[in-house]
Structure formats: structure tokens, C-alpha cells
Design goal:
It is a single chain. The radius of gyration is 20 Å and the shape is globular. The strands form two sheets. Strands 1, 2, 3, 4, 5, 6, 8, 10 and 11 form a nine-stranded mixed sheet that branches. It has ten helices and eleven strands. Helix content is 36%, strand content 21%.
């Protein structure tokens, strides 16, 4: 029987093969005494994919490489249900683990039974804090992401909702609860994810929002672990897609998210959403610019 590992790590690659070796190198060089198993998935990249991976990782028994015939987005991560690690770690191909990061995440999860997940302390390339931390998307927060809501929040409420949603003033030097962290370096309790890590209907957008909402609905919490540091280059393939594709995926995903998690609110959500989309289309036509979310 295969020995149970401490962490099952998944790295999902799509047209970021130029950065992939950096992520794999950081895993191999910082694992230390941890028992790890690493699944590297390529979503039908057109930039060389696994052909650009150093042979040292291809010959390492801890690493396995899965080649997909089409881009299935994050849904392909459900393959991790076949792995044996006590925890599951999602690591972006443009993320680099610092020494001790995995050990700090495992130690925190071991000592905090109510933690369904924990995020690393993400850093930009220059070492500054990467403040991508959000509250769970609720009907109230959704309204204040619309154009009308943003105007009300800015001019009447002093950006109260904007600051709250984005954890304005967060002290990342201490352990703190984060409702919805980014997914680049996130450790998950296996018992918390159940029989579905990623909802395949949210494979490209609202993936992490849905995952975090499900954990909170089960009574778990999510934390930031300050001693677990990872550099995130923010050079993912999603940001390289054209704006019209991103807009279509975002709109489809947010509608599904609210239909799934807030069914009673969905009719009102859809009416507000439709008005906001009309206003955004008008602004795009008149200014030739994409309105901010």
C-alpha cells in the first residue's frame, strides 16, 4: 500500500510553461522532511507545455505529469481526489514557495482543527505584500461592485463596502481569518473538500469563491499563515486572454454562483445584474474602455 503523504500538491499549467520550472523547483527544494506527492497538469498548452519541464522533475518519483487534450480549467483538479495526502495544496505555476512555507502551512492545519483551508502570505516579486484577500461574495457585496453601487459607496459611504470587501488595512504579519483568499498557494483539509474539490461548472471564474463559500457553509474557517511565504508573479494565462472572453466567463460564472448559493435572491440579483450590464455596455461604447469591477 502506498504510504500516505503529508501534502498532495497540484500545479495547473496553461500557457505558463516558461514559469513552471520555477514552481517545481521551489517544491522540490523546500519540501525537506515532508512527504509530498505532486501532480502537474497541463491543460493543452500551446507554448510547449511539458516539453519545457526540466528532466530532473520528470524523473523524480514524487512528481507525476498529466496531459489534458483540452483546456478544462480548474475542473481538472478533481483528479486530486485520487491522491493520498492528508492535505491538498494548490500552487499556481507562477508561484514560488519560500523555505519553510509548506512546513508552516502543515503545522498550522495540524494545530487548528476548525481550519478548512489556509493561505500562504503572498508576496510580489519586489517583496511587497500581495493584498488579494476578499470577503465571501454576498448579495450586499455584489451590489457594491455594480456601477451604481460603486458610486453610492464612493460618494455617500466613504468606500465603506469597498474597504471591507478587500480587507483594507489588513495586518499580514499575524494569523488572521480570511474569508476568500486567492488560490495561488492554498492548502485544503481533505475532509473539508468532500467528494468534489472544484465545481466543474465554475472551472474558470468564481472557482475559489465557490470553494471558500462551501467551506464556510460546512462550519470551517480559512486563515492566513504569515510564516508561510510564497512569491506570486501574477502572470497567469487567464490574464492573457482577451477582455471579451474574460467578460463572458465572469458573467456566466457570477450568475451560476448566485443561483447556486443564494437562490431566493437570484431574481433580484438578475434584475440588478441586467441593469449593470446595460450601463457597462453603454460605457464601453461611449468611452471604448472596459469599466472597472
Amino acid at each position: 500500500m502506498k504510504e500516505k503523504s503529508d501534502i498532495s500538491i497540484v500545479v495547473l499549467n496553461y500557457n505558463t510553461s516558461d514559469l513552471l520550472n520555477g514552481a517545481l523547483r521551489s517544491i522540490a527544494s523546500t519540501a525537506g522532511d515532508l512527504k509530498i506527492e505532486v501532480t502537474v497538469i497541463d491543460n493543452a498548452s500551446s507554448d510547449g507545455g511539458f516539453s519545457r519541464v526540466d528532466s530532473v522533475y520528470k524523473s523524480d518519483a514524487r512528481f507525476r505529469f498529466v496531459q489534458n487534450e483540452k483546456n478544462a480549467g480548474w475542473a481538472t483538479v478533481n483528479i486530486m481526489l485520487e491522491t493520498k495526502g492528508r492535505y491538498i495544496l494548490t500552487l499556481d505555476p507562477d508561484a514560488v514557495l519560500h523555505t519553510g512555507a509548506m512546513q508552516a502551512l502543515v503545522a498550522f492545519m495540524d494545530s487548528t482543527p476548525n481550519a478548512g483551508a489556509a493561505t500562504a502570505n503572498l508576496r510580489n516579486k519586489d517583496g511587497s505584500a500581495q493584498m488579494y484577500y476578499r470577503r465571501i461574495m454576498t448579495p450586499a457585496f455584489f451590489f457594491f461592485t455594480t456601477l451604481i453601487g460603486r458610486i453610492i459607496d464612493k460618494y455617500l459611504l466613504g468606500l465603506r463596502y469597498f474597504k471591507r470587501y478587500r480587507y483594507d488595512g489588513l495586518d499580514v504579519s499575524r494569523v488572521c481569518e480570511i474569508e476568500q483568499p486567492a488560490i495561488p498557494c492554498l492548502i485544503w483539509r481533505r475532509a473539508a473538500v468532500g467528494d468534489c474539490i472544484i465545481d466543474p461548472r465554475l472551472a474558470f471564474q468564481f472557482t475559489d469563491v465557490d470553494m471558500c463559500k462551501r467551506l464556510y457553509d460546512l462550519g470551517y474557517k480559512i486563515y492566513l499563515v504569515p510564516d508561510a511565504v510564497a512569491t506570486h508573479l501574477k502572470s497567469t494565462s487567464y490574464g492573457r486572454r482577451d477582455s471579451s472572453w474574460r467578460r463572458r466567463v465572469y458573467n456566466r460564472s457570477i450568475k451560476f454562483y448566485f443561483r447556486k448559493h443564494y437562490p431566493a435572491f437570484f431574481p433580484l440579483f438578475y434584475a440588478i445584474f441586467a441593469v449593470d450590464q446595460a450601463l457597462r455596455a453603454l460605457l464601453r461604447y461611449s468611452t471604448l474602455r472596459e469599466p472597472l469591477r
